[in-house]
Amino acid sequence: MADGLNPRTRMLLEAPIAPTLLRLAAPNVLVMLAQAGVGLIETYFVGQLGTNALAGMALVFPVVMLMQMTSAGAMGGGIASAIARALGARRRDDADALVLHALAIAAVFSLVFTAGVVGGGRWLYTRMGGTGGALDAALVYSNWVFAGAFLVWLFNTLSAVIRGTGNMAVPAYVTVLGALVLVPLSPLLIFGWGPVPGLGIAGGAIALMAYYLVGSLVLAAYLWSPCSLLQPSFTHIRFRWMLFKDILRVGLVGTVSTVATNLSIGVTTALVGGFGTAAIAGYGTASRLEYLLVPLVFGLGAPLVAMVGTCIGAGQRERALRATWIGAAMAFVMAESIGLWAAAFPHAWLSLFNSDPAMLEAGALYLRSVGPVYGFFGLGLVLYFASQGAGRLLWPVIGNIVRLAVAVSGGWLALRWGGGLAAVFAAQGVALVSYGLVNAWAIAGGAWFGPVGWPRSTAGLLRRMPQT
Question: Is residue 194 exposed (0-12), middle (13-18) or buried (19+ Cβ within 10 Å)?
Answer without folding.
Answer: exposed
